[in-house]
């Protein structure tokens, strides 16, 4: 388990941020041109916090996770920017250094549909122990011992260690995938849609587990999802992604009360709510293609509050200490109507 | 398209059981999977009923039996007063033409090698509408109805050229093209993005009112049902545990399992992060050897020892059209209720 280190005061700010992403770009090369899946993304993640990246399919959120963990395909056109993990710019590392020092040792991942990504012919205990053998050169016997303790931590019965994935329910497999991500005691765990394939009760169980691990172990999460309701279960801060860009960053409390960006606001209004009788409102239109995104604000064509300025690309406005928004409506001195 | 004003019961399901036989070595009987075990409900013309349950509760088996892709083991399904249990050949095809089916995953449900036009003309051709002009007229009407316009832009496209929301509209258009009386929708929005979900739900609602269409809506997501159905029932381990009008069930749930489902479904709120959610322990039981008595009793905080684990609870009427299968609601006893 992790021990909190004392910080020296001058470096405190740097140290508190476990992850700081600055102007990250990931463009894929295709026959028709560059797909700008991640285009100038900035956000931070604090120690023992959870930042949730909310976005719809095709907005580049999974590409963002892959870019941070450098799990890249071959057709890369641009891969640039800065990614600081605990103050160190990991973009300067070679692929081999990154693989040896960062991947799974500092940052691990629960991939999308993790419950279906387990190897069907290897016992789950061995799969969970494998990162220790590969990334920390641990002996197999002690790695399996640690896997057993990790199974207890995530609520999988210890006799499941010798079972195969098909013998486990969906919820149990998801727990196994989480155990695999936690076993090397990483600082940051990337969770790509950790509950979207699960039933309601299992979903609640997994979110409870993630909360527990965060409280007891002190892990930091970067959670990537399209499910706003579930994301509120764990979020300390929220980043909204639209068409390859982060359009709003906010603390969770104020975000779920009233987001700043019109897109975030409309997204919240489109979520059916169980406890309230208000009728959800769809967002009409479609996000722009990332192949040739329009200049100016990318949400412009669907935005009810659009005005002349929106033809220019908005910069990021720092509204206050915790909140940033990429929208002209929040330019200082401009008092426009915000829906 | 003309709308007949019909009232009364369209679909009547009575004590339906769907059991799958398990075999050892390919022939020796080794028990049954009791996927659906004594389910009864009615659906009126032009109304929508939602079936809520977790995976493995038997909701897909129930749906497939309504579509007559499965045969009922026991009990009956009546459609417009006629029993459809044993239909075969032409009569079965005729029955199925009156039911539209919306699949969960639109991309998987649409053949990738066919154009929208081919996809939509196939059910017409199978059901005897072979005239190309007539086919075209129907396809245009169906695409307009699901608001995929201009039609000429869409009709020659393949499914992969459409967005998820558009694909699901094609699936709906295909389900609607024979002007069915009943639409069976299996998690129609679970694969779609939040902003598109509402659009598709609104479209289904619109079709329901405009065309007097009855809808059987199957989902595990309670938050999408409120704006949609008049009635709802909750299934657990092959049986209905509670059935009521939508608002009665969501605002005034009775069965401990319904409570658990509702309290596990979050609304967006930052306060969610401050507390753990209460979830009943354990997992749904095996349907080969379901627990004796009430099937939820091993996970239930309120279980009465000696009662819930021995006898299966009957349905108690809470108020009109609100029924719950739980011993806690026995009017002769005074039990603590959730």
TL;DR of this structure?
The complex is a heterodimer of chains A (339) and B (338). Chain A is α/β, with parallel strands linked by helices and 339 residues long.
Order of helices and strands of chain A: HEEEHEEHEHHHEHEHEEHHEE
Q: How far apart lie the N and C ends of chain A? A: 47 Å
Strand content of chain B: 15-25%
Number of domains of chain A: 2
Radius of gyration based on Cα positions of chain A: 21 Å
Secondary-structure-based class of chain A equals alpha/beta
Structure description:
The complex is a heterodimer of chains A (339) and B (338). Chain A folds into two domains: 15-106 and 186-330, Rossmann fold (3-Layer(aba) Sandwich); 113-185, no CATH class. Chain A has helices spanning 12-16, 61-68, 95-102, 124-135, 140-154, 170-182, 200-217, 228-231, 252-257, 262-269, and strands at residues 17-30, 33-46, 50-54, 76-85, 88-89, 107-110, 188-192, 220-225, 237-242, 245-251, 317-318, 324-325. In chain A, 29% of the residues lie in helices and 23% in strands. In chain A, strands 6-7-8-3-9-10-12-11 form an eight-stranded mixed beta sheet, sandwiched between helices. Chain A contains ten helices and twelve strands. By secondary structure, chain A is α/β, with parallel strands linked by helices. Mean pLDDT of chain A is 89; it is low at 1-15. In chain B, the strands form two sheets. Chain B has an eight-stranded mixed beta sheet. In chain B, α7 (164-176) runs parallel beside α8. Chain B has 338 residues and is α/β, with parallel strands linked by helices. In chain B, a hairpin with a 3-residue loop joins β1 and β2. Chain B has helices at 59-66, 89-96, 106-109, 116-126, 132-145, 151-154, 164-176, 194-211, 246-251, 256-264; strands at residues 9-24, 28-44, 48-52, 74-79, 82-83, 99-102, 182-186, 214-219, 231-236, 239-245, 315-319, 322-325. Chain B contains ten helices and twelve strands. The model of chain B has no long low-confidence stretch (mean pLDDT 91). Chain B is globular. The interface between A and B is large, with 51 and 38 residues.
């Amino acid at each position: 388990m992790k021990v909190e280190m004392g910080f020296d005061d001058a470096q405190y700010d740097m140290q508190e941020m476990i992850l700081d992403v600055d102007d990250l770009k990931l463009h894929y090369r295709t026959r028709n041109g560059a797909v700008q899946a991640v285009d100038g993304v900035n956000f931070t993640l604090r120690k023992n916090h959870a930042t949730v990246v909310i976005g719809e399919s095709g907005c580049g959120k999974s590409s963002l996770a892959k870019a941070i963990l450098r799990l890249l395909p071959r057709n890369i056109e641009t891969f640039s920017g800065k990614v600081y993990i605990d103050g160190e710019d990991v973009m300067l590392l070679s692929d081999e250094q990154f693989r040896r020092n960062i991947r799974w040792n500092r940052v691990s991942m629960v991939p999308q549909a993790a419950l279906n990504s387990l190897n069907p012919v290897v016992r789950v205990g061995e799969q969970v122990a494998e990162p220790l053998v590969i990334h920390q050169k641990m002996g197999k016997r002690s790695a399996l011992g640690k896997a057993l303790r990790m199974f207890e931590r995530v609520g999988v019965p210890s006799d499941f260690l010798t079972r195969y994935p098909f013998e486990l329910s969906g919820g149990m497999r998801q727990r196994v995938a989480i155990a695999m991500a936690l076993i090397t005691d990483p600082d940051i765990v990337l969770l790509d849609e950790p509950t979207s394939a699960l039933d309601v009760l299992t979903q609640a169980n997994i979110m409870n587990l993630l909360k527990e691990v965060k409280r007891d172990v002190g892990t930091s999460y970067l959670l990537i999802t399209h499910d706003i309701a579930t994301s509120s279960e764990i979020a300390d801060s929220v980043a909204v992604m639209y068409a390859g860009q982060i359009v709003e960053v906010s603390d969770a409390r104020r975000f779920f009360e009233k987001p700043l960006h019109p897109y975030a606001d409309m997204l919240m209004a489109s979520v059916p709510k169980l406890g309230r009788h208000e009728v959800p409102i769809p967002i009409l239109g479609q996000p722009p293609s990332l192949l040739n995104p329009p200049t100016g604000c990318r949400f412009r064509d669907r935005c009810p509050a659009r005005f002349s300025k929106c033809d220019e690309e908005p910069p990021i406005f720092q509204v206050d200490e915790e909140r940033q928004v990429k929208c002209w409506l929040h330019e200082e001195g401009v008092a426009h109507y915000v829906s | 398209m003309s709308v007949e004003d019909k009232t009364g019961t369209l679909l009547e399901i009575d004590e339906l059981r769907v059991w799958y036989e398990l075999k050892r070595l390919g022939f020796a009987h080794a028990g049954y999977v009791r996927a659906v075990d004594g389910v009864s409900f009615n659906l009126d013309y032009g109304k929508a009923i939602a079936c809520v349950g977790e995976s493995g509760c038997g909701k897909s088996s129930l749906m497939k039996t309504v579509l007559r892709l499965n045969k009922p083991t026991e009990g009956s399904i009546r459609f417009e007063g006629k029993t459809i249990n044993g239909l075969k050949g032409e009569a079965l095809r005729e029955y199925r033409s009156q039911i539209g089916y919306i699949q969960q995953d639109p991309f998987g449900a649409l053949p990738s090698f066919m154009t929208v036009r081919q996809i939509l003309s196939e059910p017409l051709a199978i059901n005897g509408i072979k005239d190309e002009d007539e086919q075209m007229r129907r396809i245009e009407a169906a695409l307009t109805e699901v608001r995929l316009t201009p039609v000429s832009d869409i009709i020659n496209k393949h499914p992969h050229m459409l967005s998820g929301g558009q694909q699901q509209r094609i699936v709906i258009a295909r389900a609607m093209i024979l002007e069915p009386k009943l639409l069976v929708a299996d998690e129609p929005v679970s694969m779609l993005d939040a902003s598109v979900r509402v659009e598709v739900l609104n479209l289904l609602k619109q079709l329901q009112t405009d065309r007097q269409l009855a809808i059987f809506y199957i989902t595990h997501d309670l938050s999408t049902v409120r704006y949609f159905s008049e009635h709802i029932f909750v299934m657990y381990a092959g049986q209905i545990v509670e059935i009521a009008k939508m608002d009665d069930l969501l605002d005034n749930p009775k069965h401990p399992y319904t409570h658990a489902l509702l309290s596990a479904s979050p609304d967006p709120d930052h306060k969610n992060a401050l507390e753990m959610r209460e979830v009943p322990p354990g997992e749904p039981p095996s349907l080969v050897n379901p627990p004796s008595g009430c099937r939820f009793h091993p996970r239930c905080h309120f279980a009465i020892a000696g009662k819930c684990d021995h006898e299966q609870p009957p349905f108690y009427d809470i108020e009109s059209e609100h029924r719950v299968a739980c011993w806690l609601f026995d009017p002769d006893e005074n039990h603590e209720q959730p």
